[in-house]
Design goal:
CATH architecture: Alpha-Beta Barrel
Order of helices and strands: EHEHEHEHEHEHEHEHH
Strand content: 15-25%
Number of domains: 1
Distance between the termini: 11 Å
CATH superfamily: Aldolase class I
Strand order of the largest sheet: 1-8-7-6-5-4-3-2
CATH topology: TIM Barrel
Shape: globular
Largest sheet: 8 strands, parallel
Structural class: alpha/beta
Length: about 230
Amino acid sequence: MPEFRIAPSILSANFAKLGEEVDNVLASGADIVHFDVMDNHYVPNLTIGPLVCEALRKHGVTAPIDVHLMVKPVDRIIPDFAKAGASYITFHPEASEHIDRTIGLIKESGCKAGLVFNPATPLEVLEYTLDKIDMVLLMSVNPGFGGQKFIPYVLDKARKVRKMIDERGLNVSLEIDGGVGPANILDVAKAGVDTFVAGSAVFGAAKDSDPNRYNSVIATMRAELAKA
C-alpha cells in the first residue's frame, strides 16, 4: 500500500487568509491541498474556481493540489483547472456524459485523473476505468457542505475498492472525504484508504494566529495512522 497522505480541505479554512492558512497546514505536516469545487447545481453550495487555485500557486504553494469537481457538466472547466495548477482532478461519474472521454481530457491536460463516488453511488464503473485513473475518492458524507458526520458503511466500499486495486496490481490512490479526524482515521486506514481528506477536523482545530496551531491535530492523526 502507498504511504499515508493527509489532505486538508481548504473548504474549512479562513478564506480571508487562505495563502497563509495553506502555508501553515503544509508546514504542520500535511501532504496535499484538497480543493472543493461546488457549483450550486450538482451540489447545493457554491465555492471556488480556477482563479483561487491559480492564486495559491502564485502565492508559492508547491504541494499537490487535489481538485474535487462537484460540478455538472464537468468537461468545460477541466482545462481551466489544469492551467491554474491542479495536480489531481477528480469528478463524479454521474456528472459526465462520457466518463472515458472526461478521464482522457484530464490526462491530456497534464493532470492525474480520479473518480469520486457519493456514499450510495455504486462502484460498477470502476470495472472499466480503474486501470485508466490515478485516484478513487470515496465520499463518506453527501457532498455539498463541510462538518458532516462520517457514514460508516463507506468503509465496506473502501475495502471493495482496495481489493480491486490490489488484485489488479495497480498504483491507484484510495482517498476518503467527509467526517474524517483523529477519532476514526485508524479505522479508515484499516479499510484500505491511503489518502485522508480532513477539513473541519484540521482547520477547525484552533482559531488563533499561531502558525503552528495545526501541528497537534496532524501529529495526532499521524500517530493513529502509525498503528495501522
